[in-house]
């Protein structure tokens, strides 16, 4: 046990003191802080020029827009037209030619020639992919046509409009999990564990292969118990990754608590995660993290050069990527048999069972069975990795094939 803690302490301190670890942590922290302060940065540059009502700007109103209007037959009342465009400058053209000149000389952004109650001509100097003027004017013409028809029929148009604009309201009663609301933070947490395993798994494989290539592993394996070595290295790498992610999540949480108002609390769904979801993520995520990290550690012992890590780790990386896509698909089909089966397979349960807990309905028995299977599998993989590590690190030359590595598990030390 003493050897284990010695290896753990040495490897952990080496990892967290590494320049790459510190620099990457600082850079990602800065990106998080800057990203969450984007509204404040925009406000600092724009000042108070942009006025908003209830936190939402007027999509259709552009204070800088100027429209030219020619209504020869007086189809639309000028006051009514102005009411439809309260923040827009309207120029009354004398005739069609006058309106064209205003648009051509860019004194008006666009021009509208009203030809009848249900038609108009639209003039613009240069078309744009984002031109929504005609959509807005269509609404104006439609509203004006309806009111004119109502007046002819002696119908109170305002009352009709009030009836037509009445909004139907509803209140959603969720009896289970709010899958839509939980989707955002579930996806983020899945991506976090995905990146942790990919990055730190490769790093541990590189460390083991590097020690093997410079022959220092021969001294370590013969003087230190292989279980203490592999468990110390893997747990140290896992702790380094967990500490880094925990620090980054804390930075994000603290920063958002200070900038939530500037976001209009729009990101609450990402940061206000229920405690039970965080607990299930910690339990399944950490154990699943160890499961894959042990495998990556064993793979590092099967190669003699760090350059061969990529090819040696390809099969397990492919499996891991498939698991990620199965989980992602399961997030959109929580009742599917695929995600239910995957939630009991050790290679995928740490993701899929967490998704089921976060977004779906799952019994306590299912959670316990899945966790026990995952935990037992991780322990077996850990001791198996230690055996492969001891045998593989003393063999040099070509990369040891996986089927040969499995034979190591049958031999007694």
Automatic annotation (TrEMBL):
Pfam families named in the record: ABC2_membrane_3
TM region(s), chain numbering: 20-42, 183-201, 234-256, 277-303, 309-329, 341-359, 365-386
Keyword line: Cell membrane, Membrane, Transmembrane, Transmembrane helix
Any single GO CC term annotated in Swiss-Prot or TrEMBL for this entry: plasma membrane
Domain ABC-2 type transporter transmembrane: 19-385
Molecular function GO terms recorded: ABC-type transporter activity
Cell compartment(s), UniProt: Cell membrane
Keyword set includes Methyltransferase: no
Topological type in the membrane: Multi-pass membrane protein
Main location: membrane
PANTHER family hit by this protein: MEMBRANE COMPONENT OF ABC TRANSPORTER YHHJ-RELATED (PTHR30294), MULTIDRUG ABC TRANSPORTER PERMEASE YBHS-RELATED (PTHR30294:SF29)
Stated name of the protein: ABC transporter permease
Species for this entry: Copranaerobaculum intestinale
The organism's taxonomic lineage, starting at the top: Bacteria, Bacillati, Bacillota, Erysipelotrichia, Erysipelotrichales
